[in-house]
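Exam revision sheet. Question 4 asks you to relate a sequence to its structure. Input first:
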Amino acid sequence: MTGLVNLFRDNFQQFDATSALDIAIISLIFFWVLMLLRGTTAMAVMRGAFILLIAAFLLARVFDLRVLNFLITNSFTGLLIALPIVFQPELRRALERVGRTGARAFGASISTEGTLEAITEAAGDMAKKKVGALIVIERETGLQDYIESGITVDALPSPELLHGIFFPNSPLHDGAVVVRNDRVVAAAVTLPLSENTMPGELGTRHRAALGITERTDAISVVVSEETGGISVAAEGRMYTRLDDVRLRALLQRLVGARRDGDA
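Answer key, structure tokens:
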């Protein structure tokens, strides 16, 4: 008992401001990782791995299982290598968030109200005529990999242009339109599909709209050709049953538009 008290006292005497800072940084890193994984499948995987590891450790200690104890003791190096592979999507999302924070600090570009107004007007008009459409607004995360899968357009956004692209049986109506820096840069773009379960009335176009927002910080506006409903996907979440007024307000809030002519 005395030895334990002396050991505790010796360790406490070595504790200084640097040690406190070290502990605080490590705690913040763990907290940030847990917040990042919260609500994802990665959290369930981590919880299951932790339970199995604790159960194996207790079995090895209680029953003196030497082989199992050896495997647990020497498996941490392998786990450190496996973690970046298993949680690659979450780690990539974390690095993108850090990069987006830096981009905002350096004044990353945002869309003007004119661009959002053109998208809103086009979506409302196509919804009335039940013309399916999918418009993606690029923000800080670049979409060049997806843009290259489509057809280059490079034109100012307007309701007439967007309606013409998505007009039924037109060469470019399949796929998505990508808007970057107040320009329609590409059409007929192929997007990744979300793996999340969606309501029956939401089809492939909605899964694509949601899928791109799960991997990037883009905003998707989708019009259903079956129901004429307007939806917006952002940060892996779908906002449905929007009208022109709600769509305009939501886009202004999510994209953070500036007035035309502002610096």
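Marking note for examiners. The chain has two domains: 2-105, 113-255.
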